Every structure is written in structure tokens, then in C-alpha cells.
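haha ok so turns out i had the wrong file open the whole time. this is the CORRECT one, sorry everyone. sequence first:
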Amino acid sequence: MNYEMIIWAIVIVFILILFIIKLVTPQIVRREIFFGVRLPKNLLGDLRLDDFKKAYLRNYLSLCGFYTLLFCVILAKIPNNAILLGGLIVFLLLSTWLYYLSHQRVMQFKQANEAYMLNRKQIVMVDTSFRSDKSKRPLPAKTWFIIPLFIIGFNLLAGYMAYDELPIVVPSHWNAQGEIDGGVFKTWGLVFLFPLVQIFITGFMFLLYQAVGWSKLQISTLNPADSRERNRIFRFRWGANIIFLNILILLVISLLNLFVLQLIPVNVPVLLFVQPLLIILVLLDILFMAVWTGQGGSRLNTGSVTYCQDNDMALDDDKDWIGGLLYFNPRDPALFVEKRFGIAWGLNYGNIKAYILIASLIAAFFLLGSLMELLLFY
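then structure:
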């Protein structure tokens, strides 16, 4: 069996899923946010917006669709990591450029209708009870993270029990033909290697879980009560999904650990395909969650009634969004905000804490690499 070709086929599936995610993004964002531009409610029903969306989809399908097809054909004929990385970068740049063209068109459309906005009162709605309301909490209980901790403990125990039976040189890597092409000397560091990676992943996932709860609450003036409930359900589902993904990733790492510790016989197809398939499953999960909930819960229906006054409109904060993609507002203390065009959350780059967080994550990645090297070779 040609395992290498199967792996590259999985990589092509990964590229196609990325293509679909970008394709459906305009359908899952908030109704009042159109290609990164906040629109007053009198413009939301304008037929020209449908034309903008159709133009984006048409351009994306023709340009990115052709590029993605060509990219996949080249990868199938010349499977190469450099081509894969370069092709993905070009795809992201191309799709971002198409988005930006639509963003500019919507901005021009909004500016052409500024006269409507001049006599309107801009309002900001704040709900101080959102996080303190215990009857409708926005996140699942933190105690669910006991499961990842239990999995980490199991791997530590498994390593301790298997250590005496391990050979002097332990196989640790297999090539695309299923042959052993790497190994490490037997040390106690090997026992802690996979649990260390699991600890790092769990810490990162817990940070994402917290970010969902800490992120800035956006209440739509079109329907405040409905918007609040959508946000709560949206956050709860994504919080639960983060816990689910954490457990799934840790279970896959546990399987690899048991292979290396020789506690279960090495199954070459499982060993080779489990990691790329995990990436596919994570992407499919994100795509499913995005379509199921929409950004900020925009695809949910709570049945709440609108009570916003007709002469009010939400605060026009377009100036705080660079290209509708990056949030930069030094006046806003919030660190995490929902993306305007895309899935999940981003940072407020006007907050110094954002750069401290980025630097800390980069340092953590380097620290993880150094610790893994230390465990294996010293």
C-alpha cells in the first residue's frame, strides 16, 4: 500500500475544507456586520447588499476555485512540503484580497448613505449581569477539564509501568512506507515527553475556553434580548466544543504514546494517518460549529422580541477595525473580541496585553521545544 499517496490525499481534503470555510463565511456572520462593516438597520434590507455578496461568491468560486483546483492537481503530481506551504500562503492572500475588495465596496456604499446616519443617536448596550447570571451561565463548568487531567495522569502512569520493558533504543518515528526511521535512547525523559505536550495543549485550550468567557459582549440594537441569549448559547456551545476538542486531541496523543511505549502493537496505517485525520476532524468540527451557530450566534433563533427604538442605531465603530479584520482600540479595555469576518475570536491590538499574550505564547512554544529536547537527549 502506498501510504505516502494516501497521506497527500488527506492533505488535499484539508485544502478543500479550507476552501469551503472561506466560501461559507459570508453566510455565518452577524446580520448587521457585512464584510467587516457595521451597517445601520435601514440599509440591511437593501438589495445592493445581495449583489455585493453574490459578486464575492462569484469571484471567489471562479478565482479561488480555479486556484484551489490547480493547487490540488500540482500537489497530487508533485507532493512536496515547500509547495504545500507556499500554496497555502498564496491561497490565504488571494482569499483575503477578494474579501478586502468586497469590504471596500460596502464601505463606499455606507458612505454614500451617510445622510441617514447624521440625525440618528448612536447607542452602546451593556449588560453587566451577563457573566454573573448563574441561572444562564455563558460557559460549561471548568470541572470538565478534569477529564484532560485524568488522561494526562494515565499517560504518566503508563510510561512509568512500561519503562523497565523498553529497549535501549526506542523507535519513535515511522516514514510514509511504515518503516522505522527514527529512535531515541531509553531515558526517563521519554516517560514525560507526551504528557508534557498534553499539558501544553490543555493549557492552551483552557486559555481559549477562558477567552470565550472574557471576550467583549456585543449586543445588537436590532434585538437586544435576542442578541443576549444568542451570545450566551454561542459561547456555551463553543466552550463545550473547546473541551471536546481538547479531549479528542489528548486521546490521539495518548494512542501515539502507547505505540512508542510499546504497550500496544504498532499499527502502521493508524500511526501514519491518525495525525492528518485529526487535523481534518478539527477543521470539520470548526466548520460544523460555524454553520450551526453562526458568528455570535447569528444563526440561532431564540424567539425574543425587538424593543429597540427606531431612531437609534448601534455605535459606528468601523474606525476601530483595520480593514474590518483587525481590532485596534486603545480606549476599549477588552482584550478579546469576536471577529467581524471569520470564525471565533481575535485580539484588541490597541491593548498592550495583546502583545504580552502573543509574546508569552511564542515563548511557551520555544520553551516546549527546549523541554522536549532536554527530555530526549539529556
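The CA atoms of residues 364 and 370 lie 10 Å apart.
again sry for the mixup
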